[in-house]
Design a protein that fits this description.
The complex is a heterodimer of chains A (about 325) and B (about 450). Chain A has about 325 residues and is an all-alpha fold. Chain A is built from 13 helices and two strands; from the N terminus they run H-E-E-H-H-H-H-H-H-H-H-H-H-H-H. Chain A has two domains: about 40 residues; about 200 residues, MetI-like fold (Orthogonal Bundle), CATH 1.10.3720.10. Chain B has two domains: about 180 residues, D-Maltodextrin-Binding Protein, domain 2, CATH 3.40.190; about 200 residues, Periplasmic binding protein-like II (D-Maltodextrin-Binding Protein, domain 2). In chain B, about 45% of the residues lie in helices and about 10% in strands. Classes of the chains: A mainly alpha (about 325), B alpha/beta (about 450). At the A-B interface, helix 1, helix 10, helix 12 and helix 13 of A face helix 1, helix 3, helix 11 and helix 18 of B.
């Protein structure tokens, strides 16, 4: 890009001695590069940047899909914050979901990764098997299975009955519906697990050996070596899972349809309902932008905080 | 290496974030509407229809159960055989997602040529100028409605223009399990009151241990109750509720909630999960003796129950008005953007009047509107089919004229009503508060849409 060569100086301190390039010569020099990334570039502009700009515009309009949008200023945003009880419900549900499911999922993924970090026969097969849920987890079949599993006459209740515990339909009970979905998401621990596994493999064996010589037991080793050495991976997984968590849609849409009584009304589900069931595209676009801001804020917080807890060996322990 | 990882996480989280605004990646709709466009965006400058040998391609969409898909596909095949060169591309799905997909297609200027339409959406689509007035084709004789009573056509007309042709008439119904009724020694005689309805439920619960009643889940039950009182949900302008006193809704909510508390009606936890799955309702599983549905769902309920089911009308009020009405179960409409309006009208005519086609369709969409077809089908109907014809004859005695089509925003109000019913039945809200809440929120929706 152009900006690299036209150096803006602070206090006139550094002045690079590259002659300023025109954008034409810049383009000429880089044309092959652009050609190579063009599939991505076209996709990015056509399918991401374009729709994003469109959605920003639509968020300030009243748009019902069938007739053309009319400009209404910030009315959508004002209505969301002052006049929409379900918007707050959706936010609350989503926050609870993210703050419970993400740490649990990461902890569980790490736990399973530790189990698979040993070499024994058939470990590859097990890794594959345990990865499967995260591939199929968002599918309709699994959602239906989950609904039956936790249904009134499902296996979960049958099992509980053996122990003399009487319970109800987990998915239809307002008190347990969200937990059932959280469980479903935790069950899809495959991708963070794989990443943890890769991270675990990179921790030098000498560290453990040295610690063992000094008399550290397994628990010490875990907290003093494994966790600190894994922090970059934890950081990465945390950010990814958090973003995914805020965008969770399928599980609620398919298993509970946001119900019972909005107890599992994830933000994305409510957004979808507004957009496609009630044809309020403008309103839904405004919701999408609010979600973007929320997620960006949390991502920024995690990034900011990372300097105090993420350990990069290559940066001299910083 | 580690630095690379940090960069990677920055980049990939940025990418994820961006994907979020550009239209959630995980939504099931995102990739399925990739059928090639045919209808183009051009306004329907009248294109000549097929002469022999020329090929015409129409797209048709409908919702329904597997049963309906099979029957409809067969009829399309028959129509194509009779009209060489015509190709009808079917797109079908369940009710869930149908309207989302259709609206998206309309927005993308890819509206299918022939659209299965619902009474409550008709106004919205006509309002937005997306449907074709079919009157000219009726006058030209392409679409023959001479064998059809005006009562069946009226529902598809707005301001005198025919925007939709009914595929069948329909009315809410109570489905019940005769086996349980016999065991309990009770009977539902048409004309029975709400109180008798409750008492029969009680006796069934007492004698058989099965829940007597599956509570009504949607607005249809309350519409019926209001009509019993000579009222309607919406006012004439469609910008406010049509009843002034909340006592009706309070009574209605109390009716079911009290029965639930008594143990006679199934609790929310049991009926809510399957309320919108015809094949999976409590009556079909034998876990409740009676429940409400639509008359055209009888076939589906019976075939999934695998045992005889009976149908009868909804409760009445002593000295009250008739609650039932003939609702067009669904329509066929033609898109304004179609290039082959005449062929589309011809297809509708085929579905409406052709005896062989209706042998295949077998009234699965509701009571056929052409008299010849109706008489023919009734004669050769199977058991569940006969039940429907007999039921619709029964309804005639308990029906009066239909209220005007639902106003814009009605779908949102129906969703609202279903949520509030659940709040009451789960015990999260008292009938009194719930009725107030419904009035407030429904009024706001109507004002916003039609104010």
């Amino acid at each position: 890009m152009n900006g690299e060569s036209q150096v803006v100086t602070n206090n006139g301190a550094i002045q690079k001695k590259i002659k300023p390039m025109t954008w034409q010569s810049d383009l000429k020099r880089n044309i092959v590069g652009y050609a190579f990334i063009s599939p991505w570039l076209i996709g990015f502009i056509g399918y991401i940047l374009g729709p994003m700009i469109a959605s920003l515009y639509l968020s300030f309009t009243d748009y019902d899909l069938l007739s053309s949008p009319t400009w209404i200023g910030a009315e959508n945003y004002i209505n969301l914050f002052t006049n929409d009880e379900r918007f707050w419900t959706a936010l609350k549900v989503t926050f609870v979901f993210v703050f419970i499911s993400v740490p649990l999922k990461l902890a569980f993924a790490l736990f399973v990764a530790m189990l698979f970090n040993k070499d024994y026969r058939g470990v590859g097969v097990y890794r594959t098997i345990y990865y499967v849920p995260s591939i199929i987890g968002g599918s309709v079949a699994v959602a239906v299975m989950w609904r039956e599993l936790f249904g009134m006459n499902g296996p979960v209740n049958a099992l509980l009955k053996l122990f003399g515990i009487q319970s109800s339909n987990w998915v239809a009970n307002p008190d347990t519906a969200l937990s059932t979905l959280i469980l479903l998401v935790i069950w899809q621990f495959g991708s963070p697990m794989l990443i943890f596994l890769a991270g675990l493999k990179q921790i030098p064996k000498e560290l453990y050996e040295a610690a063992a010589v000094d008399g550290a037991n397994k628990v010490h080793q875990f907290f003093k070596i494994t966790i600190p050495m894994l922090t970059p991976i934890i950081f990465f997984n945390l950010v990814m899972q958090m973003i995914n968590g805020f965008m969770t849609f399928t599980q609620s849409f398919l298993v509970t349809q946001g119900g019972p009584m909005d107890r599992t009304l994830f933000y994305a589900v409510y957004l979808y309902e507004k957009a496609f069931a009630h044809f309020q595209m403008g309103y839904a676009s405004a919701m999408a932008w609010i979600l973007l801001i929320i997620v960006a804020t949390f991502t920024a917080i995690i990034f900011k905080s990372s300097s105090s807890w993420v350990y990069y060996e290559s940066e001299g322990g910083k | 290496m580690r630095k690379g990882k940090k960069l990677l996480s920055v980049l990939s989280s940025a990418a994820l974030l961006v994907g979020l605004v550009a239209g959630c990646g995980g939504s099931p709709e995102s990739n399925q509407s990739a059928t090639p466009a045919n209808g183009g965006g051009e306004k329907s400058a009248k294109v000549e229809d097929t002469k022999a040998g020329e090929s015409v391609e129409l797209r048709m969409v409908w919702w329904g159960s597997q049963n309906r898909h099979d029957r409809t596909l067969k009829v399309i095949e028959m129509f194509e055989k009779e009209n060489p060169g015509v190709k009808i591309k079917p797109e079908f799905s369940g009710w869930d997602g149908y309207w989302e997909k259709l609206a998206t297609q309309v927005a993308g200027n890819r509206m299918p040529d022939i659209v299965q339409m619902d009474y409550k959406f008709l106004n919205e689509y006509v309002d937005r100028d997306t449907l074709l007035d079919l009157n000219p084709y009726v006058e030209q004789g392409v679409l023959d409605l001479s064998d059809t009573d005006d009562n069946y056509i009226g529902g598809g007309k707005i301001d005198g223009k025919l925007f939709a042709v009914s595929l069948g008439a329909n009315s809410p119904a109570i489905a019940y399990d005769p086996e349980l009724f016999k065991k309990a020694g009770v009977e539902l005689k048409p004309g029975y009151t709400w109180e008798e309805f409750a008492n029969i439920g009680r006796q069934i619960k007492e004698k058989t241990g099965t829940f007597g009643i599956e509570p009504f889940s949607d607005l249809n039950g309350f519409k019926h109750y209001l009509r019993n009182h000579g009222l309607w949900v919406y006012n004439e302008q469609g910008n406010a509720l049509g009843y002034d006193d909340d006592k009706y809704l309070v009574e209605y909510f109390h009716f079911f909630k009290d029965l639930i508390d008594e143990g006679v009606a199934a609790p929310a936890e049991q009926w809510v999960p399957t309320a919108d799955q015809v094949e999976n309702r409590m009556m079909t599983h034998g876990t409740a003796a009676m429940g409400q549905m639509h008359s055209n769902q009888i076939t589906a309920v019976m075939s999934s129950a695998g045992r005889p089911m009976e149908v009868t009308i909804l409760p009445s009020i002593e000295g009250g008005e008739k609650g039932h009405f003939f609702k067009p179960s669904q329509f066929l409409s033609v898109a304004k953007t179609t290039k082959h309006p005449e062929m589309a009208a011809k297809f509708i005519d085929y579905v409406t009047n052709n005896i062989e086609a209706n042998d295949v369709l077998a009234g699965e969409r509701g009571l056929p509107i052409a008299k010849k077809v109706r008489d023919h089908l009734k004669e050769k109907a199977d058991e569940s089919g006969k039940k429907m014809y007999e039921y619709m004859e029964l309804v005639e005695e308990y029906a009066r004229e239909i209220d005007p089509p639902d106003p814009k925003g009605a779908t949102e109000i129906e969703a609202l009503f279903e949520r509030i019913v659940q709040e009451v039945d789960y015990g999260q809200s008292t009938p009194e508060d719930a009725a107030k809440k419904f009035r407030n929120e429904a009024t706001a929706i109507l004002k916003k849409n039609n104010g």
